Amino acid sequence: MMDGRAHPRLRGFGTSVFTEMSRLAIEHGAVNLGQGFPDFEGPDFVKEAAKAAIDSGRNQYAPSHGVPRLRAAIAASWTQDTGREVDPESEVTVTSGATEALFDAVQAFLGPGDEVVAFEPFYDAYPAAAALAGGRLRPVTLRPPGWSFDPEELVAAFGPRTRVLLLNTPHNPTGKVFRRDELSVIADLCRERDVVVLSDEVYDRIVFEGAVHVSPATLPGMWDRTLVINSTGKTFSLTGWKVGYAVGPAPLQTALRAVHQFVTFATATPFQEAFATALEVAPGLGYYDRLREEYTARRERLRTVLEEVGLRTLPVAGAYFLLAEVAGHGFRDDVAFCRYLTTEVGVAAVPPSAFYADPNLAPLLARFCFAKKTETLRKAAERLRRLPPQPGGV
Ligand code: PMP
Ligand code: GLN
């Protein structure tokens, strides 16, 4: 229970759904397909680079905005992908994970009473970051099966206090990859209302057949108002290293850095060095293509498992989650279903209602992570076969 002296701003932000479901999974010995992290090792060439950095004495504070070699590698990678030259000194900042970059940016641009527009379902850190800045999140709902939004609802969410729009593409938990025409509608509005865009693109390398990842920063007139936030943890399957970064114009970076210097000051030096190596050599090794192929195979493995036990899955274009329809299993809501699945069936999933402003409006779905080894998915399959078609839950 939280201390009664804690500020009321913290109300409603007790323990994250990921911590809760992982704890329940451990308690019940469940196969954890809940919290999004790979249960396989990241690439040896990146791990070796971290060890070498430690052994060669790269162990003191890094410059606050990031080690030069990593910033240069991020800038080069951005230029490679988008054709735009980026200044590594003023247009790239390294943070302790994407979470820190998002938090810093929200604190930098939002004050008490200000508003952030974000598409719902949204990653749980977004409303928390807005609330801690004294601001408020205005959701615009994405609706299945295509997870499209109503442009009129988007316009209606903008008000005189809107300072920031938070976008996530590829999207967690739906797997949606925003199309260029959708991004244009968003971009027009943000330009018109002079709103800063924080674009969370942590799954940019995990996109599937036919889908193309487009950053809103690459749309006409958008560079100057967009911070693109990314995380090397997803791309290189090393989520525990927590190295993230923001790419964007110098004035927005200056604001972000003003917060970053007092939140963490700097990010772990040897891991920054290792990720510099990772970004430098990955394209030449065909690493990104292989990552996509492997995730496509993992997605299909999990899809087959879920469909076999009567859990119909929704199509996904990116990221590493599948949403399955759980209506018809007799549960009141997704939380009851996911708790039952974890404690009685032995497979943990995440209830997507945790990603909604009003959890009662969430469709009845469960989120399963497929960043898992084949043997983990096989074990999950064995257990899921115990799931009765109509378990008659509460
Ligand atoms: N944004 C989204 C959409 C995520 O799913 C996650 C977590 N995996 C993050 C941000 C956080 O990334 P990091 O671990 O680098 O803080
Ligand atoms: N992003 C991961 C997910 O969506 C979890 C990260 C975390 O535990 N905060 O599952």
Number of strands: 11
Strand composition percent: 5-15%
Bound molecules: 4'-deoxy-4'-aminopyridoxal-5'-phosphate, glutamine
Q: What CATH architecture of the largest domain would you give? A: 3-Layer(aba) Sandwich
Helical content band = 25-40%
Q: What distance lies between the first and last C-alpha atoms, to the nearest angstrom?
A: 26 Å
Adjacency order of strands in the biggest sheet? 2-8-7-6-5-3-4
CATH superfamily of the largest domain: Type I PLP-dependent aspartate aminotransferase-like (Major domain)
Structural class: alpha/beta
Count of DSSP helices?
13
Element-level helix/strand string: HEHHEHEHEHEHEEHEHHHEHEEH
The largest β sheet comes out as: 7 strands, mixed
Alpha-carbon Rg, integer: 21 Å
Q: Can you tell me the residue ranges where pLDDT is under 50 for at least 5 consecutive residues?
A: none
Number of domains: 2
Compute the average pLDDT. Answer: 95
Which fold name fills CATH's third level, the topology of the largest domain? Aspartate Aminotransferase, domain 2
- What form results from the Cα inertia axes? globular
GO molecular function, one term: pyridoxal phosphate binding
Protein name: Aspartate aminotransferase
Family: Belongs to the class-I pyridoxal-phosphate-dependent aminotransferase family.
Cofactor: pyridoxal 5'-phosphate
Quick rundown:
This protein has helices at 17-27, 44-55, 68-82, 97-109, 125-132, 151-157, 180-192, 232-235, 250-263, 269-281, 287-308, 334-345, 374-384, and strands spanning 31-32, 92-95, 115-120, 136-141, 162-168, 196-200, 226-231, 244-247, 321-325, 347-348, 365-369.
